[in-house]
Specification:
The chain is an all-alpha fold. It folds into three domains: 3-86, no CATH class; 110-300, no CATH class; 311-477, no CATH class. Helices cover 78% and strands 1% of the residues. A two-stranded antiparallel ribbon has the order 1-2. Helix 3 crosses helix 5 (76-86) and helix 8 runs antiparallel to helix 15. 40% of the residues are buried.
């Protein structure tokens, strides 16, 4: 008998087996509870509040219905409270985590992968035509962000419950469905056959890169996309060497290689159908994240979309490059924040000490990310020679938007997606209203200043929302 089972018996929690006709013991609610404590022991022993245990339960896929059926408690929080009261604390002095440069470099590389499609666009525009290609690529990018967000989220839910092969099957299925959805975009906008291929391949890149990064296959993605990167850079430096058509073909083959690599990654034999494992609540919980990805992409692509409508040069669109490149740094600093919070929780059981330090830690990592984004923005200002005042305003706006995204990523990791959505919708409303009034001569603003105003509202709103949320212990495991 395990020590934790004995511990429950000593406190009056009966652990009595039931038996089948063959004499084999069946798990009772108490047996299952002892097994759960065995599984979540480190979390229970080091938690300073029952909300931490509740967060760990939810992260492992437990919901109120499952808790009631398996353990006899009305909801997750009642079960967490029982575990907190019965399992003894084991606070240990905080130890500095081993610094792994490889983890940081891997996370920083993600920004390069997110920005990589930007190298594809010059050749594609030259081959298909800028006006037609711009709208198709914007729409497929918006769909790609949203769809990839949803499928990765559902895969995490399955993996958290121990259905690892089923998560791979789900990803493989949703990849193929995503390609079909992307293929519907060109006919809607009356695009050419060439545009169909480009839109589908951009969607394929979004999904494949998300899966390969999820399974830490950065080297695979790098190997697959290297031909596209090299040909794209060659086209920028010497367009006549390969030409637009040949360069685009190389890129298409490169994206296909990445897609095949993702398909290989998610190969698995399953014993359960992921569609039967997932519950209705899992799908409903995924919809806000997909909507967040959709609204985020819409906000980022507002500038290119406006230039598509007005058929004007899109040079100011280069102002978004630092923001996209910084996404790897965002992941890095968010991990640093969670690690520092873990060290704080391991070193104290005083809620006052926790409350005094949490905002300081968060603002310090936000400042670190801000410095990285500022450095990238200054490099872009010099490298792209962004002398146009409108492009410079977009650069500042995207800096503010990046800070807002950092706060948004933090809140979504704490299951506060609805609050993030409210912030995004508020920012979009402010932008549209300000731009509309400026077009009528009622406000002394233009497109870039309206975008700056919307970005500022987004960041300020989320900061005001986040600071009290960060003090809630249930957000940390």
């Amino acid at each position: 008998m395990s020590q934790r089972t004995e511990f429950f018996e000593d406190r009056g929690v009966a652990v009595l087996p039931s038996y089948t006709r063959t004499g084999k013991a069946l798990p009772t609610a108490s047996n299952r509870l002892a097994q759960l404590v065995q599984h979540l022991g480190p979390v229970c022993e080091t938690s300073v509040d029952s909300q931490q245990i509740a967060a760990a339960l939810e992260a492992h896929g437990y919901n109120d219905r499952m808790v009631l059926e398996r353990y006899g408690y009305a909801n997750v929080f009642e079960l967490a409270e029982t575990l907190f009261r019965t399992v003894p604390r084991k606070h240990t002095p905080a130890k500095h985590r081993v610094y792994k440069l490889s983890n940081t470099l891997r996370e920083l590389s993600h920004g390069l992968f997110y920005a990589m499609p930007g190298l594809f666009y010059p050749a594609i525009f030259a081959w298909v035509g800028a006006q037609e290609a711009t709208l198709g690529l914007i729409l497929s990018a918006i769909l790609g962000w949203s769809w990839s967000q949803g499928m990765i989220r559902l895969a995490y839910v399955l993996m958290g419950r121990g259905f690892v092969p089923e998560a791979r099957l789900l990803l493989r299925t949703m990849m193929l469905v995503g390609l079909g959805l992307a293929a519907l975009i060109p006919p809607i906008i009356q695009g050419s056959l060439a545009l169909v291929a480009l839109v589908v391949l951009q969607m394929a890149y979004h999904m494949a890169s998300g899966i390969l990064l999820l399974y830490k296959r950065e080297l695979w993605l790098l190997a697959a996309t290297s031909p596209a990167v090299l040909s794209g850079m060659l086209f920028l430096l010497a367009p006549g060497v390969l030409g637009a058509a040949a360069t685009t073909m190389v890129m298409m083959v490169s994206v296909l290689l990445g897609f095949v690599a993702a398909l290989i990654t998610v190969r698995a034999k399953t014993t359960h159908s992921p569609w039967k494992v997932l519950q209705r609540g899992d799908w409903l919980d995924t919809l806000p994240l997909m909507l967040y990805g959709l609204l985020s992409a819409i906000f980022v692509f507002l500038n290119p979309f406006w230039h598509w409508i007005t058929n004007t040069p899109i040079a100011s669109g280069l102002a978004v490059v630092p923001l996209v490149l910084s996404m790897g740094g965002l992941e890095w600093q968010l991990r640093v924040f969670l690690e520092r919070m873990s060290l704080l929780l391991a070193s104290t059981n005083d809620l006052g000490v926790f409350a005094r330090n949490v905002n300081r830690i968060f603002l310090s990592v936000l400042a670190s990310y801000g410095l990285l984004l500022l450095a990238l923005s200054l490099l872009a200002l010099a490298f792209f020679n962004l002398q146009d005042s409108q492009a410079q305003i977009f650069l500042v706006a995207n800096f503010l938007l990046g800070l807002g995204f950092f706060v948004a990523f933090t809140l979504t990791s704490m299951n506060r997606t609805l609050r993030v959505l409210l912030g995004m919708m508020l920012a979009l409303t402010v932008y549209v209203a300000a731009f509309g009034l400026s077009q009528q001569g009622l406000l002394p603003l233009n497109e870039s200043l309206s975008y700056l105003l919307g970005s500022g509202v987004f960041t300020i709103y989320l900061l005001l929302v986040a600071l009290p949320v960060l003090r809630e212990l249930r957000n940390y495991q």
